[in-house]
Amino acid sequence: MEIAISQTHEVIILSTSQPITCNQTLMVTTHRVFEPDLNEHQTVFGGKILSLVDDSASVAAVRLTHATVVTAAFDHVNFLAPFRLDDSLCLEAYVTGTGKRSLEVFVKVIGENLTTGKRFLGFTCFITYVLDNPDAPALPSIQPETDEQCYLCAGYSQRYQERRTHRAGERELTQHLTLTAPWLTD
């Protein structure tokens, strides 16, 4: 891989002759649940989980791109089991597919009851990031290594097509939305 530094001191990938493995982008972090993380149901607030997930997944994205990326979409978001006080959240994120300027990151959050040691799958999603630089070279392909990674990477093309279809519907939807303050209408 050839790398250059731009005038703004951003690392730019010039060529990508070999695929990058999912594990080369892997980001793992653990967060302990404390009372301020909880909602009125005494489980971790969903917005807190989404924030942790986006923060973590962006590290996996930048490990691949070595450039600024922006969050474009969350999809296939699944809150599978609640996280409670005395649990930890182990977030794992890695790249599962690339386009010319976009990439997909898979995130799973494994809960662990710190008292009993019992582990459970609590959350999964895919996040699409887009390179901030429209003139950036094409991203390298991704090479899975584990059974999980092979399964997820094999589904990338289908999810990519689903996102394209969804974006077209979103463009139509936004044409029908008003920006008028509802409290100012007659």
Give a brief rundown of this model.
Keywords: Hydrolase. This protein is an alpha+beta fold.
Description:
The chain is α+β, with helices and mostly antiparallel strands and 186 residues long. It has a single domain (2-174), classed as Hotdog Thioesterase (Thiol Ester Dehydrase, Chain A). It is built from four helices and nine strands. A five-stranded antiparallel β-sheet has the order 4-6-7-8-5. The longest helix has 20 residues, at 46-65. The protein is globular. Belongs to the acyl coenzyme A hydrolase family.
Q: Which helices and strands, and how do they pair?
A:
Blueprint lengths: L1 E4 L5 E5 L4 E2 H4 L1 E6 L13 H20 L3 E11 L7 E12 L3 E12 L5 E13 L10 E2 L3 H8 L1 H19 L12
Parallel strand pairs: 3-9
Antiparallel strand pairs: 1-2, 4-6, 5-8, 6-7, 7-8
Estimated radius of gyration: 19 Å
Strand arrangement, major sheet? 4-6-7-8-5
Number of strands: 9
The helix/strand order is EEEHEHEEEEEHH
Q: What descriptive keywords fit this protein?
A:
186 residues, alpha+beta, Thiol Ester Dehydrase, Chain A
